[in-house]
Design a protein that fits this description.
- The protein is α+β, with helices and mostly antiparallel strands.
- The protein has a single domain, classed as Double Stranded RNA Binding Domain, CATH 3.30.160.
- 22% of the residues lie in helices and 30% in strands.
- The chain has four helices and eight strands.
- It has helices at residues 3-15, 20-23, 59-74, 179-190, and strands at 30-36, 45-50, 78-80, 88-101, 107-108, 142-154, 160-171, 201-204.
- Strands 1, 2, 3, 4, 5, 6, 7 and 8 form an eight-stranded mixed β-sheet that branches.
- Strand 4 (88-101) and strand 5 (107-108) form a beta hairpin.
- Helix 3 (59-74) runs parallel beside helix 4.
- It starts with a helix and ends with a strand.
- The model is unreliable at 1-22 and 104-132 (pLDDT under 50).
Length: 205
């Protein structure tokens, strides 16, 4: 049996994701880009809040925030909870889009959900292709792109010290195709080399 055939058989047996053609449409790494002014970013108390006020208090947002909190704590911040209003705040947003994978492995259609945090002249949107946005159904013939965007700023005057975004793809219906499911991997990729080289995009497997 060829290596390609063996790989297909393993994917079908272990994941039941609808065949190798769909797997060919998935980007097997996360990409991360950050922007900052090259100045020292003070560590201290920081709160995590959603960019969309309607997400506050939801279970899903709590799971996503926990992923970002682990990374901030690792880097030396003290994350505060509840109604605490720290001077520093990490504003986070997660967007998703989907495209279909045909039997040939080519994708058709695209959705782009961008978190526009363009404080240094840069936007945080996921790059797209041609076609129209399609709904995310969780079917295995979909490739779901998830983007996590984080902005660290002062609460008093909204001055941004650092911002970044990371994105990845997963087959529909898999754990990594959900917003909360992708958050751990995306947060780890985004903060891997914090603060990182401003404007540079890295790949994290």
């Amino acid at each position: 049996m060829s290596k390609f055939a063996s790989r297909c058989a393993a994917l079908l047996a272990l994941a039941a994701l609808g065949g190798c053609a769909a797997d060919q449409g998935v980007q097997r790494y996360a990409t991360a880009t950050s922007f900052h002014l090259g100045q020292l970013i003070a560590r201290g108390e920081i709160a995590i809040e959603p960019a969309a006020a309607g997400d506050s208090g939801s279970l899903e947002f709590g799971q996503i925030a926990a992923s970002v909190e682990r990374e901030l704590a690792r880097l030396g911040w003290n994350v505060v909870h509840g109604n605490a209003r720290s001077e520093q705040v990490a504003v986070i947003r997660v967007d998703q889009s989907a495209h279909l994978v045909q039997g040939s492995g080519f994708s058709i259609g695209v959705g782009v959900g961008g978190a526009d945090y363009g404080r240094y002249g840069h936007g945080g949107g996921v790059a797209g292709g041609v076609g129209a946005t399609i709904p995310i159904t969780g079917q295995p013939n979909q490739v779901v792109a998830t983007q996590l965007a984080v902005r660290i700023q002062r609460r008093s005057d909204a001055t941004v010290a650092w911002e970044g975004h990371a994105e990845m793809e997963a087959l529909g219906g898999t754990p990594l195709a959900s917003r909360a499911g992708a958050a751990d991997r995306l947060a780890a990729a985004l903060f891997q080399d914090f603060p990182g080289e401003s404007g540079r995009t890295i790949r994290v497997r």
